[in-house]
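Data deposition worksheet. Section B asks for the primary sequence of the deposited chain exactly as it was used as input, without tags or linkers unless they were present during the calculation. Section C holds the resulting structure in token form. Section D is free text for depositor observations; keep each observation to a single sentence. Incomplete worksheets are returned to the depositor.
Section A, Depositor: J.P.
Section B:
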Amino acid sequence: MKIDLTETNSSKINAAMVQARRDIGTPAIGMVLTLVIVTDEENAYDALKSANDASHEHPSRIVVVIKRVSRSPRSRQGARLDAEIRVGADSGSGETVVLRLHGELVDHAQSVVLPLLLPDAPVVVWWPEGAPADLAGDPLGALGQRRITDTYSSENPTGALGARAEAYAPGDTDLSWTRITPWRSMLAAALDQQALKVDSATVEGEGENPSCELLAMWLADRLQVPVKRTPSAGPGLTAVRLETKDGAIVLDRADGALATLCMPGQPDRAVALKRRDTAELLAEELRRLDPDNTYEASLKFGVDRLNPAAPTPAEAPAKAEPAKPAPKPAKKAAAK
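Section C:
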């Protein structure tokens, strides 16, 4: 069931949702959280589709906040709220409210969203792209116990990782970190089997891919060894190499689906390591709502500590200048 409301408010939206549930005979019980999606009109469809797919595992009330910012000063003066309510088969395993904020209301989105949150249920805020620098300090982010972003969608992913580290607060997370969960599990299992001391590591993947940087920082932080980051053609992460005294442990995925694990003294074996879609990543993040201390430690390790920059000309040791040859003596004039 779909209900469209124009120039409405939070009270009318709540009343319409209650009436819609009565009409289709669906109670409000069974929803475990409220997922607030902050996006724009262009990305709203894909984000909502991923959230609906994830709601089959985590039934939730999905509140989509779309800020319709106008360049005209006159248009920004008139505050208006339009809403679209979806209940039943049109909203996955929960219910969905799509809010379109106009005018001055754009700057007060939290006042509209707050009355729509499920009582006594955790709140998760997700920015598919265009996340603020300080997630916890954002008015909408302050409503959530968990705040999800995706640095892969940033124009400068590596720079975005630095900004996330500076403004990190417990509850922040990143889908770029979620993407490397299978890699971290596979590498940890390989080291448990071999029990070898790692001397150095190399992470190979696409340039400007934050998942590659996060995996390299995780290895450097946990193993306390130098980790080199090398670019490749992709897709995504392509290989990790751990150097030990008995040989290298290599996890190589060239096609984005099937990987090969090579360990000293054992035959090579194929392992499933496919690239996952956004719905799977979101569902994984919704399984745990407590702070991720491992992500925090890896994020704060710092990208600049992976491949130290070469010394600048001022820092480089000065080269000794070659001695100048002695001037040749002037030829004496021939005697007459």
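Section D:
The longest helix spans residues 10-24.
The chain has ten helices and 14 strands.
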